[in-house]
SnoaL-like domain-containing protein
Amino acid sequence: MDADRIARLDALLDRQDIADCITRFARGMDRFDRALFLSAFHPDATIAAGPFVGQAAPLYDWGASLHDAGQEATHHNLLNQTIEIDGETAHVETYYLFVGRNRDATNWIAGGRYLDRMERRDGAWKIALRTNVIEWSGLVPTLPLPFADWPGINANGVSARDSSDPSYQRPLVNHRPAHIPTMEHD
């Protein structure tokens, strides 16, 4: 394999490691998985998020208490991403869409961008500095969850903000019987 192709493959692997790191942050916050969340940050990382400025562990504690007090569910959706790698440092911009199902039966939605300086230390890409640009927010009307009253709909598990969430199940299996709805009856 030629040197240019090897360099491109190395860059692709770095980009994937960086994207995986950002995903660990989001999943860790949504599932209240502290260890997963913290794995996205270097221990000395600085994060500026809303009124919070500090390190990752206190950010997790503050964010988890905020989300737990106000919301039944949160989704940190990661969207467009640019990654500029320069040696052991990368500058990353990740657009996000945040949605929270609030305890008062409203839904809050916000959009913005995570701006990260990431560093590869001991072979691992993690966030060294993060700032958060919030660009808009609003409330979305609440509607019933689709199919919530369908018999057996929860046989494969229900959304949870801990490791009982079905996404942690290994191996993932289906506990629901085969059923193909028809337009006339189901």
Q: What stands out?
A: The chain has a mean pLDDT of 94. The chain has one domain: 3-58+66-142. Helices lie at 3-30, 34-38, 56-70.
